[in-house]
Structure formats: C-alpha cells, structure tokens
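Milestone M4 deliverable, item 7.
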Amino acid sequence: MLNPKTSILVAALSGFAVSSIAASVGQKDFTQEPAAAREKRMKWFNDARFGLFIHWGVYSVPAGEWKGKTNYGEWFMEETKMPVSQYEQFARQFNPVKFDARAWVRMAKDAGMKYIVITSKHHDGFGMFRSDMTDWCIKSTPFQRDPLKELASACKQAGITFCFYHSIMDWHHPDWGTRRAWNDKATGTPDMDSYVVYMKGQLKELITRYGPLGILWFDGEWEKPWTHERGVDLYNYVRSLQPNIIVNNRVGKGRSGMGGMDKGQGVGDYGTPEQEIPPTGFGPGVYWESCMTMNNHWGYNKHDQHWKSTQTLIRNLVDCASKGGNYLLNVGPTSEGLIPPASVERLAEIGRWMKVNHEAIYGTKASPFEKLTFGRCTQRTRSGGKTRLYLHVFDRPVDGKLVLPGLANKPFKAFLLDGRAKLEVATRENQTIITLPAELPDKIATVVVLDIKGKPAVVKGSS
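Output delivered:
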C-alpha cells in the first residue's frame, strides 16, 4: 500500500491545501443559521424517523475472529493491535462480488426506511470509495468497482436519501495526532493540520462525486487531537460545499458519552444516542437519532448470533418516534457483499408492520403524555384544528379499556389504523377511555387512532 505521505499525494494536495486554508479563514459561519432556516433544512430528517446504518469495510474479512478470539468487529485493528502493514493485507482479500446495490436499497425501502448512512471511512482509515487522496481505499482491493457510487445511484432511483458516516479519527494515517505504537508504516511527527487537509480532500470527493448527500455522520471525535475549534471549522467547511447538508454533533466535542446529546461547547445539527433511547424527548427544535445494532456488533462478526427480536426492533422504532427522535438501525455486511440473513429477515418483518402502520411513524411529533402503561403515543396536526393521536398498544389492558389519563380534549372518533374496526370511545373526568377488541390484530404493536379537537391538553399528574 502507498503511504498517504508519498510524494504523489503531496503533489496532489499542494494546490488543495492552499485553497482549503484560504476557505477556512474566510468561509461563512453556518453555526449562526436562523432557526427558521434550520427547521426547513432539518424537515426531511425530522419526518423520516427511520434509517439504515451500514458498517462495511475490510474488517469484514476476518469476520470477527483472530488467534482464537471471536469478539472483534470494526475495531479489529485497535483491539488486536495488529501492525498496519499486516492489517493492510485484508484489503487484498476484500472482494465483495455478491454485492448488489439495488438489492440493498430495495431491502431498506421495503423495511420502511427513508435514508441510508454507510461508512465511507471507519477508524481504520480505509475508504470504501475510489479516492484520489490515497491508495488506502477500495482501489487496493480485487474489487475494482465503486460500491458507494452504485449505492448512490440506487438510492437516487428509489427515492432514498443517501448519507455517509466518516471517521474523524484515523488509525492508519501518519498525521493523526494520536498515533498508535503499532502503526509501523508511519514516519516523522504527526501533523494534524496536514491531516485535516487530507480529510477535507476526501470529504470534498464524497460531497461532489456522490452527492447531494443527506447527512455527513461524523465519529471518532473524542480523542485529544480533535478540538472544538476544529469541529466548528469542519462543520462550516462541509456546509460551504453543500449548504443544505445535515451534520451530526460528533463533528464537535460537546457529546456527553453514549447518551449522545451535547453538553457544553457543541456543534452540529442533531444528537446521537448510541445503543440507547433517551428516557424522554427534548422538546421542539432539538433533533436526535438513536443508532443501534441488531446484535452485539456494528461490523460483521460471524460468531455473533445474539439477534434482537423483531418485536424489540419495532418497539424501539416506536419508542424513538414517540419521543420525537429517529431510529438508525445497523447491519454489518460480509466481505462477500451480503447482508446477514438474520438482518434481512428482521428488516422484512419490520417492513410488513410499517406497510400497515407507517402513518403513525413518518412526520409525527412526540407524545403529549408523560407515560402510558400500555405502550407509546405519536401525534400529528390535522386540518380543521384537529389532532390525530396514534396509540401504539404493546400490552392490552386486562379489562380491554385503553385509558388516556388527563386528556381534556373532546374526542371525535377512534379506530384501528389497519382499518378493521371502529372503536367505542368515552370521556370521564379528564380521562378518555377506548374499548379495545377482544383480540389485537398485531401482538407487537397494534395502532389505535384517536381524533381529538384542538391541540392535546393533558392535565399533568392525572391517573
């Protein structure tokens, strides 16, 4: 493999470096965007509610196993402390001849997903696209196609918003400030300014060759070499290339652990809870998205068969929507280019639920209730001063009575979203009571629709 600090790369970067530095000095400050403009830019994201995360790279070649241990994933290089020169050999074995971009996109669309976020580069620095900035990318594999170009085309045809995950941290690049002892290809002293030029060069390739993009999903910002100031600069640089792009909060330094929301100095458009869903929402104007795996790994691990049930996945989606957030559900494809059958099966099952109940997810707002014992609630404003409440019933009350505590609004009608039955609805002392059928049509989450007059008025503390 060519080291990124070869004379060829330096020559390629020389003109770009000058223009990049100049742009940083005089570029527009997009962090001062008016609230109305931000709301307009974020609308598609806020309406989408459901997306597909894809962690795919050369770490799929060892498939999670090395020297008798079987718990590795996308952090393979870091966790094994394998010399970079040895890790690079996985690229020579990466040949996803069974990859079918249209099949992947069709699977996501059939599941009810509105956007796809795929790793253009994870922490190992390997580019899943054909980059002019380095040979440490798909060019160094036997697979001479460009999978990200094919996915971009398939997403455009299917009406799916195409997005990239891009790691700020880079274990392979010699100029990343926290160089690993096992990086046996690196020489000299790390130079973060040089690294940022390299990273911006790749991001410019991604935005101008594969865009327009919906989101740039950054990660790996927590190490010391990355600063708040660099985060602000990168945010502004990316939006200077595509002003309407959405950037997550991991571009900066404000994220508070796996909870994912900013505390202190933050930059970016939305919060990123990881492997967890916040206990409550955050109110209007605060955007967030929970990213979660289907099993215990992001990248492909052939030994990991700890799959979450379809019920858990659907209820996670409902939980996120009920709190005003999005659900980004991950798959880890194999080095052959196949998504594991267990993932495919669960996505198909989610899709069957979404085909019936999508109205209760897309474009909805958070629940007006603090807590519901039977499940969750989403809502949308309707014409004529009405509100439609979607009551996602996880657990049917023993007496068959769905009680909405504290709801003071006059109800118009109640019915099952699947169209099977109208339901009896009554009111009593700031309570609305809906009588359910003896059997719920969906054991995972049956959606009951309740139309009410005006905006929801819920008396707090009612029971």
